[in-house]
Amino acid sequence: MEPREYENAFFTRQGFRRRACKKCGEAFWAQGEREVCSETPCTPYSFQGNSPFRRSFDLSSFREFYLSFFEKHGHTRLRRYPVVPRWRNDVMFVQASIYDFQPWVTSGAIPPPANPLTISQPCMRFTDIENVGVTGRHLTMFEMMAHHAFNSAEKEVYWKDRCIELCHELVTSELGAAPEEVSYKEEAWEGGGNLGPSVSVGLRGLEIATLVFMQYIRDGEQLKPMPLRVVDTGYGLERFTHMSQGTPTIYEAVFPGILHDLPSEFTLPEAAVLCDHAKNFLFLFTDGIVPSNVREGYLARLLLRRILRTLDKHPGALTLPRLMETVVRHVSKDFPELAGDPKGLAEVLRVEEERFAEALTRGRAQVRRLEERVRKEGRAPNVDDLVMIYDSLGVTPDVAVEELSTKVEVPQDFFARVTELHTRTPTQGWGGYGADSAEAKVPEPPTSVPATVVHYHRDPYTHQFTGRVLWRSGPWVILDQTYFYPTGGGQITDRGELSGVPVEEVVRHGPWVMHKLTTPEAPLPEVGATSEGRIDAPRRRQLMQHHTATHLLNGALRQTLGPHIWQAGAYKGTEGARLDITHWQALTPEEIREVERLVNRVVREDRPVKSYFETRSKAEERFGFGLYQGGAVPGKELRIVEVENFDVEACGGTHCTRTAEVGFVKVLGTERIQDGMVRLHFAAGERALEVLQEHEAILAEASQKLAAPVADIPKAVDRLLERLKEGHKEAKAASKADVKELAQRLSSSPASSHALAGGKLQVVAAKVELDREGLQALAREVTSRPGGIALLAGEDERGAILFFASSDPKQMPARDLLAVALEAWGGKGGGNPSAATGSGPKGPKVQSALDAALARARELSGSAPP
RNA sequence: GGGCGUGUAGAUCAGCGGAAGAUCGCUGCUUUCGCAAAGCAGAGGCCGUGGGUUCAAAUCCCACCACGUCCA
């Protein structure tokens, strides 16, 4: 960034001068004669016990102080957004206040909810998790206070000078810091393909805020100006609070109430982990994260497990539920929603604690076994083993060392070694959202084509209409208006016809709804002429029923299982629909029945389903962020779908206008698609009836085949299985008896039985009609007698098989006998002294192989041939 | 989303190319007034699923499924 990027009217007016820090050499702006910047290490930490501010704040009072300051200066105050950004798929958590407005607002797609605005946004940053409590200032969760302004050609709100002026006024005249102590350090900022100048605000060795001016789009080496210039600021609420109190660490300032209420065993480094992680988990849980072994859920689980390990350091002093109760009591004063699901919270904690205990017991046992295995290899367990133990068993090195009988030093860089094992995947850019595969194939219409007017929201029942053709490219057609619903929000496309030509797919692309004809070359009215549209009505009706049923089911699940239920995904097709929800264990049959009863009761009550547009901020104000069940919806206005007194969601789909139209809802099955997530398959309306009819037909068929009434099918199957098992047993016993008898016959027949070594050995050599398994059973029978030697030949589809076994492997090794036979025969094989097997071609040579083996046996026993 | 680990008797696991094992539990018998215990005998296995390699696969290779775990 060029130095002139930092020049502004405020700096000039107030006599700020640009200079290089005498210590770090970096450029900063300040008043007075400062020679070094005000950040660590150039300026040491110097506010503990000596705050630069006039008064002392806690989190609550500073937040209020900040927000009302900016309100006073023309900003609109916004409520916090969820810490889980369901409106984008490139990040798991909100990590800065600007995330709330990306990508739709920052890209200019929709206007900001207010402009300028101010907010205090809870943010998650898990990178510092190891440092919590250790450094005295790290947290995994903090609130980023911010004031944002979005400047466009139409509306200039404010830019660098006013932004810095507001910041400076807040820190100096409002809070009381000496103006010459504050430094504004230059820092080029870049992220997500955008960049611009930025200053970090330093005071007494602490960076307390960052002011970013997003201004350019990177296009290779070139910088292009952004159409929307964004003032993006971030003020650390916890840091300001810390500074205002001047406490030794940030934790005393941020968690005074919780720290006070903890048992005295837990002092600072450990207590900080408890406070920070519990508070963080509470936000995650409230905003819809359920512990799991992947993605966001894994981090929620990690927090809980770190808490449990910390609690274990003082056994009996404090339990997880008690800790969480304390944290809820304190934190919910400012965020009442955190106390909204005490039952669910208690249940998830119980399940997680149980799972952790199990994992630990299993892990410890496996560590002991691993040590034994390693010992057999003739070495002692080493650090690599510990890394492996942690990585794949989840047993931390300190626990593993307890289990091992030999001492292993855990190196400082242990966790770095673990990280090294995992190859880094490149972080995803901004291209991810909104670009589904269907859209990628769509041709780009010229921008002169007017946006499509859509009617399916207002009127989902009209199936015939006329529209003027505005544009066409191959199979793709844009009309001035349409009733066709394009694929979106988990609801699949409408089908139908345009002027008699079948329409196979409809997609939304930017401002247009594009209809795809099945035949690209089909004749259609000229551009400018009108075309008759006809929508496949039964299909649309089924999709509407499935979509409304999804909302009913979602509402019923939340009512039955608790407010932690969030929609994690959904699909509405014609054959059926599915809904994925966040939940920590599989649904029980009784829970499913209860949900079904509730859903169908709401259907019978024939409640109105209202859909209407509402401004985003008003809707959020009225219904909260639970609106975003289906992910974020673009637009200044949200389309609200409201099932009276039951469920409210922001949704762009086509819906029944009364619940009775859904007809009937049946859950067809559930599965745990991953830890912390349950999928429900269901059907509604006509399709539900069809499915039940299919099931009935299947039952009827089963009933007929079993010759039992439907009600007796389970009993009939039980009997059948019992009989099958008995039959199996009998067959096994019979074949065992057969083999026994065969062995008896062979060994008493002079043609196949040969006494050697003066009768101490009995060789049974014979060709039988048995496969490999049969030969083995027979050989076992022969060798179970003292001195028994089996030289058996049999066959399967692929050829002849030899199976030799010996009860006296020392004198009469089966492998050696087989070797002789193979030589005479030309087959392949091998084995050990007590058993050997070979295979080769069928034919007379098999007999000579047996003869050769028998001759060899005679030699070995010292018996002369007859 | 990616890496690693684990799937063998009801349970916990061993075996890791040559004829499926141990411990606990279960059943029966002996002993006892009865219980516990001991002794003896026995039942119980598609060695996760599907391919492949091999004379021979629980064992080696590939794919999939399930569970666990770590990292983004």
Q: What report would you give on this structure?
A:
The protein is α+β, with helices and mostly antiparallel strands and 866 residues long. Helices cover 36% and strands 24% of the residues. The strands form 6 sheets. The chain has a 9-stranded mixed sheet with strand order 1-2-6-7-8-9-5-4-3. β25 and β26 form a beta hairpin. The longest helix has 36 residues. The protein is globular, with a radius of gyration of 38 Å. It starts with 8 loop residues before the first helix and ends in a 5-residue tail after the last helix. The structure holds one RNA strand of 72 nucleotides.
- What is the count of β-strands? 30
CATH superfamily of the largest domain: Bira Bifunctional Protein, Domain 2
Q: What is the C-alpha radius of gyration, as a whole number of Å?
A: 38 Å
Q: How large is the count of helical segments?
A: 22
Strand order of the largest sheet: 1-2-6-7-8-9-5-4-3
Which sheet architecture does the biggest sheet show?
A: 9 strands, mixed
CATH class of the largest domain: Alpha Beta
Mean pLDDT: 88
Any idea what the shape is?
globular
- How many domains in all? 6
Strand content: 15-25%
Helix share bin? 25-40%
Q: What distance lies between the first and last C-alpha atoms, to the nearest angstrom? A: 105 Å
Low-confidence stretches: 424-440
Please identify the structural class as seen in this structure. Answer: alpha+beta
CATH topology (level 3) name of the largest domain:
BirA Bifunctional Protein, domain 2
